[in-house]
Amino acid sequence: MSKGRGARRSSLAVPIRLTPQAWRHLTLLAGRPPEGGGLLGSRGGGVVDRLWLDCRGQTAPGSYTPDTASINRLVLPVWRTEGIAPVGFLHSHPPDCPALSGADAAYALRLLRALRVRRLLMPLLCGDGSGAFFLRGYAVQALSGGGMRLRRCRVLPPPLHCVPVRRAQIKKTDARSCASDKKENAI
Q: Which of 80, 112, 154, 174 has its CA 20 to 30 A from that of 141?
């Protein structure tokens, strides 16, 4: 990522922890071509409890634009009633692009302002759509002068005994339609 105006890099931040449910949804994204994403939610306690996969966002090689209308109209109202707050945004990149881009950093700054939060998780899932992936964790913090601080952080999966995901499941999931994903991706 290029250091845009107002962005500073810093040392590793607190790790991103995921529940088994959020991890399963993350693996669904790994079975899709790069440049997709979803909203991260938490009930607190520093753990990501929910991941809403965005099936309607606009994707193209090298870019992803979230479906903010669905997020604002469908996801956030349900999450509010369940005590879940948006804490970040996961999106995918090809494996040869494992860093946030300048456009990603600019989007993170807009999200910080729109959600009125001081810290935002921005993990990257890097993969080619085959189901194999690696994660790069980032946390973005708002600075008082209007800029932001970008920190690398670890993404910690739940204990392995909690995540029964096999390669065959990922391939099967990849073949499902977006409508089926929405049902499985209960908000």
A: 80
